[in-house]
Design brief:
This protein is an alpha+beta fold. It contains 11 helices and 19 strands. Strands 1, 3, 4, 6, 7 and 8 form a 6-stranded mixed beta sheet that branches. It has a 5-stranded mixed beta sheet with strand order 16-15-14-17-18, with helices on both faces. Strands 9-10-11-12 form a 4-stranded antiparallel beta sheet, with helices on both faces. InterPro entries: DNA/RNA_pol_sf (IPR043502), RVT_2 (IPR013103). It comes from Fagus sylvatica.
């Protein structure tokens, strides 16, 4: 069969086809990748920023080879059979998605083309039912790293379509089908799924322990059983087309850059208060939403940005010019700290500790308080959270106590997860708090009339205190590391907090 890459039309339909008036016969070609080398001429495929109904790129030999590789992989797995479209039925369309994969130093590694089903044409109950599929929690990724530190292209034929035998990218049920498949395969090698993160698979043998952490079709394999890991890689290669990227250095990577602007010493102005009244609304919120979405992902490894991003993300639906100015300031701060990142030391202990703080009635719009806490495994920061409390607290003590309850919930989950990872917490975990009244409430039957409305939190914390699973330590405000998650700080204070959180200034990649 001759592959014709300049014809971007193909139709697919799943085992249960849907009723519709007419089948789809055309296809938009689009790209989800930003150019790593802006400004190059159109003849250079690396200059692609967005492809919309532009078939000239499909004639480039690099993209032709990428599409050929994708079609070859789909043929090998017998993804579909050619058949005649049933009368009165409509096919689920598809499109090509192009992406340039880069190395950690920014150079081009390969050109990747993915054939993706157009999900919006599927109907619930006909084309699909259950679609839920778990994705690794990023806290699990950081915890594991801390522990481990030790087709278009077919000739067009009338009414000829592809009847799917396997899930295709883009179908609503594809993630669920993939997770079920990989779960069954690794189970054959003795792996069991963690009860606390179902994407974490664990195997204990007499030679050691092995972990698999799955994030869609990317995975981390680690452990102290080197022979078992090698055998596992060979086994998985027999079942799937895999690419071994060697020692982990780039996982779910995100690159950020900002040119032609000054830098700032803090991500937010001191004591800044954003609201929905001041300044003019933005004419088009698209850019604002895209920037904030990228910043949210960036906080995965930049926890000191979390409070600033938490503020600006509250105005996604109707941003104003003051909100946009705040986003630009965050970007200017990032420009001056491009190579900051989390540092997981191989010499750190595996003992858990926490810091919890609150910004009482800090939101000028609804006067709700903001919870902030973080957990360190030895010196490695593995978990943190910022969220607005669901009710208005009548005192700073009440707000702080609700924060302690949230931190206790996270502590219990982390304790169970770390036990699964082979790092059980055998001693009581300290939670540092700078509100003595909240600590007194936790240990004693005091202020009873003033605390009835938080009785559930009260009993929850006291139960685990009595079980000696945790203990509360009073600290001064200057030693409260969670301050970085609840308020804007002056430059000197921010640098001190970033240093105490063991953030590292990493060497820039060599290009």
């Amino acid at each position: 069969m001759t592959l014709i890459f300049t014809d971007p039309s193909i139709d697919l339909y799943p085992d249960n086809v849907r009723d519709s008036a007419s089948p789809s016969s055309s296809l938009e070609v689009s790209s989800l990748v930003l150019s790593p080398a802006a400004g190059l001429p159109d003849s250079d495929p690396t200059s692609i920023s967005t492809i919309r109904v532009s078939h000239r790129y499909t004639t480039n030999p690099l993209w032709q080879q990428a599409m050929a590789d994708e079609l070859d992989a789909l043929h090998k797995t017998h993804t579909w059979d050619m058949t005649t479209l049933p009368s009165g039925k409509s096919a689920v369309g598809c499109k090509w998605v192009y992406k340039i994969k880069t190395r950690t130093d920014g150079s081009v590694e390969r050109y990747k083309a993915r054939l993706v089903a157009r999900v919006f044409t599927q109907e619930y109950g006909i084309d699909y039912e259950e679609t839920f599929a778990p994705v690794a929690l990023l806290t699990s990724v950081r915890s594991l790293l801390a522990v481990a530190a030790p087709p278009p292209g077919y000739p067009d034929s009338q009414n000829q379509v592809c009847r799917l035998r396997r899930a295709l990218y883009g179908l609503k049920q594809a993630p669920r089908a993939w997770f079920a498949k990989i779960s069954n395969v690794v189970a054959q090698q003795g792996f069991t799924s963690s009860s606390y993160d179902s994407t974490l698979f664990i195997r204990h043998t007499f030679t050691g322990i092995t972990f698999i952490l799955l994030y869609v079709d990317d995975m981390i394999i680690t452990g102290d059983d080197t022979t078992g890991i090698c055998d596992l890689q060979k086994f998985l290669s027999q079942h799937f087309e895999m690419k071994d990227l060697d020692t982990l250095s780039y996982f779910l990577g995100l690159e950020a850059g900002l040119t032609d602007s000054k830098t700032d010493s803090t991500p937010l102005e001191l004591n800044v208060k954003l609201n929905t009244i001041d300044s003019e609304p933005l004419f088009d919120a698209t850019l604002y939403q895209q920037l904030v979405g990228s910043l949210i992902y960036l906080t995965v490894t930049r926890p000191y940005l979390a409070y600033a991003v938490h503020l600006v993300s509250q105005f996604m639906s109707a941003p104003r010019s003051t909100h946009y100015a705040a986003v630009l300031r965050i970007l200017q701060y990032i420009k001056g700290t491009l190579f900051h990142g989390l540092h997981f030391s191989a010499h750190s202990s595996l003992e858990l500790c926490a810091y919890a703080d609150v910004d009482w009635v800090g939101d000028p719009t609804d006067r709700r308080s903001t919870t902030g806490y973080c957990f360190l495994l030895g010196s490695s920061l593995i978990s943190w959270r910022i969220k607005k409390q669901s009710v208005v607290a009548r005192s700073s003590t009440e707000a702080e106590y609700c924060t302690l309850a949230d931190a206790t919930s996270e502590f219990l989950w982390l304790r169970w997860l770390l036990a699964d990872m082979g790092a059980p917490q055998t001693t009581s975990t300290p939670i540092h708090c700078d509100n003595r009244s909240a600590i007194h409430i936790a240990h004693n039957d005091v202020f009873h009339e003033r605390t009835k409305h938080i009785e559930i939190d009260y009993h929850f914390i006291r139960h685990h205190l009595q079980q000696s699973a945790l203990h509360l330590l009073s600290i001064s405000s200057k030693d409260q590391l969670a301050d970085v998650f609840t308020k804007s700080n002056p430059p000197g204070r921010l640098r001190d907090l970033v240093s105490k959180l063991k953030m590292a200034s990493l060497s820039p990649p060599c290009v």
